[in-house]
Design goal:
The protein is an alpha/beta fold. The protein has helices at about 1-15, 25-35, 60-65, 85-90, 140-155, 160-185, 200-205, 225-235, 250-260, 275-290, and strands at about 20-25, 40-45, 70-75, 100-105, 190-195, 210-215, 240, 260-265. The protein has a four-stranded parallel β-sheet with strand order 2-1-3-4, covered by helices on one side. The structure holds zinc ion.
């Protein structure tokens, strides 16, 4: 009898065992939830209000990473400043580089702006190219598929479930893509200044003109001299856009000088007004269309 109960408990714990997934950023977590539903547990390292380049590493992150089956990252060196020590100190063999439990999403899209050479004078340039590829809505299906594939590999029992959830997600996404394609194409030739090269994938895809960045170089905060030079070349820009975690002053000052409007654009899920990935592009479109 005792053996029977043990067996029963064991089989129960197996059927209820969830795939334990961690992601570096909230938007990756959203894809994991969309595909994984109630068959996964999720831990997200970065807060949506944190600068994605400078997430603060904490002992609590290490403790969580110790027990996950899969860690999904943005890659393209975006997490270089905080993730390698977290992975190492987690002592979790499953998520070490080269293992199936570490999934780098940057390898599933074509990165733009890959520098021919990288030197310190170029600022905080990422050698693989611009890492902010998630802000092109056409990339999202590729990333969702990659996540589903890896979850299927690690958890074959629930592969059918993941596959049908992915199909449902892709159907809803492709409907919205038509809407976004139409909406953003109305913004073709709109001129914008952005704080950092965060929205290049989106703007370049839809022909929105980037007339300058507030940062003189990636990762270098705006200087008075750079803003003065920018004010000469950025005339005609309708918006100066920045992310929630930036200082709003340089954007507002430049906007005043060139007669533009300074607006915050969401960059991830969890910032104001953005509850999921669909909202992310809806809100960007809405704010740029005002
Ligand atoms: Zn960046």
């Amino acid at each position: 009898m005792k053996r029977l109960i043990t067996l029963l408990l064991l089989s129960l714990s197996i059927s209820f065992a969830q795939l334990r997934v961690a992601t570096t950023y909230p938007w990756i977590g959203e894809l994991v939830k969309d595909v994984g539903g109630d068959k996964i547990s999720l831990y997200v390292i970065a807060k949506p209000t944190e600068d994605f380049h400078f997430v603060v590493p904490k002992p609590s992150h290490i403790a969580k990473l110790r027990n996950v089956d899969l860690l999904i990252i943005n890659g393209a060196s975006l997490e270089i400043g905080f993730l390698p020590p977290l992975i190492q100190q987690s002592n979790n063999p499953k998520i070490q580089p080269g293992r199936k439990g570490l999934l780098d999403l940057s390898s599933f899209v074509d990165l733009i702006e890959k520098p021919a050479v990288v030197s310190r004078e170029m600022g905080d340039v990422h050698p693989e190219g611009n890492p902010h590829y998630h802000l092109n809505p056409h990339h999202i299906p590729l990333l969702a598929k990659a996540i589903k594939e890896r979850m299927c590999e690690l958890d074959q029992t629930n592969c059918g479930y993941y596959t049908s959830r992915l199909e449902d997600f892709l159907k809803r996404w492709s409907q919205k893509l038509k809407e976004w394609d139409e909406g953003f194409s109305n913004l073709k030739d709109l001129k914008v200044v952005q704080y950092h090269k965060t929205y290049n994938y989106l703007f370049k895809h839809y022909g929105i003109q980037i007339v300058g960045t507030l940062e003189p170089l990636p990762g270098i905060p705006p200087t008075a001299r750079h803003l003065e030079e920018l004010s000469k070349v950025a005339k005609g820009a309708k918006f100066v856009v920045y992310e929630v975690f930036r200082d709003s002053k340089p954007a507002n000052n430049l906007a005043k000088v060139i007669g533009a409007r300074a607006i915050v654009l969401p960059h991830d899920v969890g910032v104001e007004g953005v509850k999921n990935l669909f909202d992310l592009f809806d809100v960007i479109l809405e704010r740029l269309s005002q």
